Amino acid sequence: MAGFGSFLEVLISGLLAGVLYSLVALGYVLIYKASGVFNYSQGAMVLLAGLALVRALGFFESQGIPYAAALVLALLFAAAVMALTAWIIERFILGPLVNQNELTLFMSTIGAAFILEGVAQMAFGSEVYPLRMFPKDAWILGEAYFPGGILINKLDIWGGVIAAVLVAAIALFFQRTKTGRALRAVADDHLAAQSVGIPISWIWFVVWFAAGLVALAAASVWGTKLGVQFSITFLALKALPVLIIGGFTSVPGAIAGGLIVGAGEKLAEIYLGALIGGGIEYWFAYVLALSVLMVRPQGLFGERLIERI
Q1: Could you list the residue range(s) of the whole structural domain that residue 180 is in?
Q2: Can you tell me whether residue 66 is helix, strand or coil?
Q3: What is the pLDDT of residue 86?
Q4: 3-class DSSP state of 228
Q5: pLDDT at 187
Q6: What CA–CA distance (Å, rounded) separates 55 from 65?
Q7: What is the mean pLDDT of the chain?
Q8: pLDDT, tens only, 163-192
Q9: Domain presence at residue 253
């Protein structure tokens, strides 16, 4: 029973860690699904949102504003920063590239990533800033059934709740709103969308702002977990296997991919690490992603592309 309890603890820890990866992956899926652009700068957007949030929170608290009110004001400030970022990206980077090929748009987001990282550090600094939005202590459950119980981090639970809310909101947005349907039309064909009167500039601003809000949600959780620091941008690399496994166009796939990656790497580190050496956790997700690519290139939940010639 003790062995099963340890296995269950590792599995739950991995699943909850995978949900945190999914928070970053959702931003990629949102932009790709709505505009057909792979946004390499999503990690930089998480960094920018986190720095704006933590520095604004510190400023408002220094003015004697109670923590709850200061947090609300800081969230509004960070959201405004992401709205400004979305407008600048649409106006000066993507707007002039309407109807260009996907590679050109992808390269533009690489440039945007470096610009955002530089601007974020110039404006808000490059130190490690602690953020205390969510509790970091843990519950110990199942002590009556497993010796020592099962440790579950409260922060991971909060991450799961936020991810569930975001998935529901994004699904409703795409399926139930006029703007969501227009976003899907733009992703299919920019030129055709323009020909029927869909304002591409407005649509791209909306989707990048929405991705900015998703980045803010991810930054709030990861900033509480690790502190707001430059290394948050590398979460983008961790999200890539999640996207490959779940599918670039599937919102539920981002969650499922995160769960698979999180659970797989934790279990592999514990149960295979002793056999083939440690450090499996750092590369196992890419092995999973490669395995999925060989069987189902569009991902487990991605849309199968059929080209007729």
Answers
A1: 2-234
A2: coil
A3: 93
A4: strand
A5: 65
A6: 14
A7: 84
A8: 888 888 888 887 788 877 777 666 666 666
A9: no
Which pair of tokens denotes residue 187? 């992703």
Q: What token pair was written down for 114?
A: 């470096």
At residue 74, the pLDDT reads 96
Number of independent structural domains in the chain: 1
Cα(210)–Cα(31) distance, integer angstroms: 9
Structure tokens belonging to residue 70: 């200061």
124 within a domain of the structure (yes/no)? yes
Which segment, 8-12, 42-46, 134-138, 297-301, is predicted with the most confidence on average? 42-46
Q: Could you tell me if 220 and 133 are in contact, meaning their C-beta atoms sit under 8 angstroms apart?
A: yes
Identify whether 98 is part of a domain: yes
Where b means 16+ CB within 10 Å and e means fewer, 175-213 reads: eeeeebebbebbbeebeebeeeebebeebbbbbbbbbbb
| pLDDT exceeds 50 at position 48 | yes
**Bridge partner residues of 151 (DSSP):** 140
CA distance 232 to 218: 10
What are the CA-CA distances from residue 85 to residues 68, 116, 121, 137, 249 (Å)? Answer: 26, 9, 15, 34, 23
Task: Give 243's Cβ-side CA count (13 Å radius).
Answer: 23
Closest listed residue to residue 286, CA positions, set 308, 307, 253, 257: 257
Interval 235-247: pLDDT, tens: 777 888 999 999 8
Residues 6+ apart with CB under 8 A from 208: 31, 85, 86, 89, 90, 94
H or E stretch at 139 = strand 138-141
Q: What is the DSSP string of 254-306?
A: HHHHHHHHHHHHHHHHHHTHHHH-S-HHHHHHHHHHHHHHHH-TT-SSSPPP-
In which residue are the tokens 């949600």 written? 217
pLDDT for the residue 61: 94
pLDDT score, position 260: 92
CB 134 within 8 A of CB 143: no
Task: Report how far apart the first and last C-alpha atoms of the chain are (Å, whole number).
Answer: 59
The answer to whether position 91 is within a domain reads: yes
Measured distance CA(188)–CA(35) in Å, rounded? 8
